[in-house]
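The following record pairs a protein chain with its ligand, pyridoxal-5'-phosphate.
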Amino acid sequence: MIECPRQELPFYIMAIKLFIPGPTIVTPDILETLSTPMMSHRTKAATELQRRISDNLREVLFTKEEILLSTSSGSGLMEGAVRSCTAKRAAVFSIGAFGKKWFKMAQTNGVPSDIIESDWGQPTTPEMVDSALATGKYDLICVTHNETSTGIQNPVEEIAEVMKKYPDVVWCVDAVSSAVGSKIETDKLGIDVLITSTQKALALPPGMAICTLSKKAYERTADVPNRGLYFDLRTIYDFIQKKPYQYTSTPCLTIMYALDAQLQKILQEGIENRFARHEEMARFIRSWADEYFTVFPNRKYLSKTLTVIGNTRNINVSELNKELIARGMQIGNGYGELKDKTFRIAHMGELTMDDMKAVTSNIQEILHL
Ligand SMILES: *Cc1c(COP(=O)(O)O)cnc(C)c1O
């Protein structure tokens, strides 16, 4: 037998605990499911796999609508949503790096669109949404649920109230770094397309994107002539109806095995318990940040899955991280414009309160706080 050549990984990758906002740690039992043998993706077993995944996702995403999967990271379906559901013009509300990127996706796909920006560290307010939609120019809006660059969770409940005045507008939400860690009642809020991906609060390896699709959003796609194909939400939806619970091309079966197992584990933990665990970790990290640094964004709208901490002591974050990595843990540096002004501690996925205590006490020790 010919041996499979393997690249040796640096030792620390094997042992490191990630406190970065994606990819997050994957538990060993889930890692094992990644070595499940391949099967034909055109079998009944593949259908059953995708159906079970979809049913369980409906439960944790609080929707009765169809679930679409995509072999891509979350960005794929963000691009697909704005392109295939905008017939007139999209209003992209941006509160940081990922909102900006969503606008760029619209622009580079030739989707007529405007960006409505908040200062970094501030939310999208219901008033901003109302005044944009009152112009009558837009038939779709993009809103970030949890902005990973600034640590803001937008007030989607309040935005939902405004959206009731505009029943023809399709509402897309980027919940890539919050879904399944922070409660979002998709149908109740009237969100038409809620997007997430596997490597954040779902605590899986990267590789698949997930979205919900309302009937309103589906119907809208009929009015959009150039939707593309691979990320066209209509094509993915139609395929599921025609060939029950199958994917338009070859799906990432490996991640589907893991997603299937992880969703069952999440339901065993209890989705409300999972949210409560995230809240408890968030509260702990925020008060730690207040004691030794400061919480960066507007305190009224804090993320439940990560805390962006203002670097008030002007520490060298990459030096700190080097020391942390030697101790088997890694935090996130600031993102983009906030690179040295902030650092980030994620509290999502499978992390626990013990992990929060460990990372903060190690930071204190390293910095002699
Ligand atoms: C990570 C992230 C994305 C991008 O998702 P990918 O899965 O990396 O494509 C988009 N939006 C937010 C808020 C994110 O945190």
